[in-house]
Amino acid sequence: MMFSTTNSTVKATCVVTMMMMMMMMMMVMEAAAMPKAGSHSKHPGRTHKRTDGDHIETVPLQLDPSFLAPKNIRSLQNSSISPWTYSVSQDESLIPRLSEARCLLRGCLDSEGLEDLSLESKPIMHQVLLLRRVRTQEAGRGYIYQLESHLIAVGCTCIRPVVTLQQ
Hints:
Distance between the termini: 43 Å
Order of helices and strands: EHEEHEEEEEEE
Number of helices: 2
């Protein structure tokens, strides 16, 4: 797996990730809006009758884009005492493309900006769901998308090393 770091690629990956998160939020909202068994809709003009007899209530979803991308976010990766950089995956089959953090130091920065090796920089891991585009015989000339779970580093943090005393 090859990685390279470019600012525009990181921004594009962030936009795609935000869009995927919005889609997942809409799917969760739609599932949460489904009434429980035996309940009745508050909006009879906006219900849809399924063939199995269940009623589904639909409500408008309004997303304000000004809340999605705050304007004054300080870059934490260079302000941290455990700085990191991002590498973008070159795997074209993953949607969205992965941006993974890589710690720049083995230790952590002290108040003078010098590396303190009595502390350790460690990645902060986060599990994400991705789609992988796969060409198959069943799809003919097309593709299918498989849901995959990946554990990726999203930043770095400073920790005290674990010291085990031997007796």
